[in-house]
Design goal:
By secondary structure, this protein is α/β, with parallel strands linked by helices. The chain has helices at 26-34, 53-67, 81-92, 121-125, 131-138, 187-197, and strands spanning 12-15, 39-42, 74-79, 99-105, 147-152, 171-174. It has a single domain, classed as 3-Layer(aba) Sandwich (Rossmann fold), CATH 3.40.50. It starts with 11 loop residues before the first strand and ends in an 8-residue tail after the last helix.
């Protein structure tokens, strides 16, 4: 497996999911920190779907701008809703100019039927074929400019159908974990994250 020295590693920003906080990402954060990465996280406000995902993505953009120098590349990891928030930052708010590696964990990249169970704006945006989903997937090929890895489980009961996490680009890894929330704690996920973050970045075209 290709490895990077500590000096070559980008800082990584972790973005949590719906109804979560940065505490949800503690296992990943601790794992990467112990391996020598600099790890940052964010608490999205509100975290319950009351806000549209564009607003949450702006919080990610603002944190990146005030935390890292303009010439500092970063890596980005988004779990569940955080994967869509991260994608909006990448595809609509200039994140592709800052991010070199992006890891999506159990994100509803094509929407989820569970989005129909709530009338909150952010949840409705995660419905299959919502205007938000159609907009993001219209130019999903833009993610090919960076190292993109999608981790998902076929047993997901939150992302419905579970295959909605797949985009058909980048590296897709199915990990047979029995429940959506466990994706951020399982050792197989941690191993896949470590591998993805250790890959050489793509050269600029």
């Amino acid at each position: 497996m290709p490895t990077t020295s500590n000096s070559d590693r980008n800082p990584i920003l972790l973005v949590h999911g719906l109804m979560d906080t940065s505490y949800k990402m503690r296992k990943i954060s601790s794992h990467l920190h112990n391996l020598g990465w600099q790890v940052w996280d964010i608490d999205l406000i509100p975290n319950n779907g009351d806000s549209k995902l564009e607003i949450l993505a702006k919080q990610v953009a603002d944190l990146v701008d005030r935390t890292f120098s303009p010439n500092q590349p970063i890596d980005l990891l988004g779990f569940s809703m955080g994967g869509l928030v991260s994608r909006y930052y990448l595809q609509r708010l200039g994140g592709l100019d800052r991010v070199q590696r992006f890891i999506s964990i159990s994100a509803p990249n094509n929407g989820t039927i569970a989005g129909y169970f709530s009338q909150r704006p952010g949840c409705m945006q995660m419905q299959p074929n919502s205007d938000f989903m159609q907009d993001l997937n219209r130019d999903v090929d833009r993610l090919k400019s960076l190292n993109f890895t999608s981790l998902w489980t076929p047993f997901d009961m939150i992302i419905l159908p579970p295959s909605s996490s797949q985009l058909g680009i980048g590296t897709e890894i199915s990990i047979p974990i029995v429940a959506h929330p466990l994706m951020v704690f399982d050792g197989r996920t941690l191993k896949a994250i470590t591998h993805a973050l250790s890959q050489p970045v793509k050269s600029p075209i």
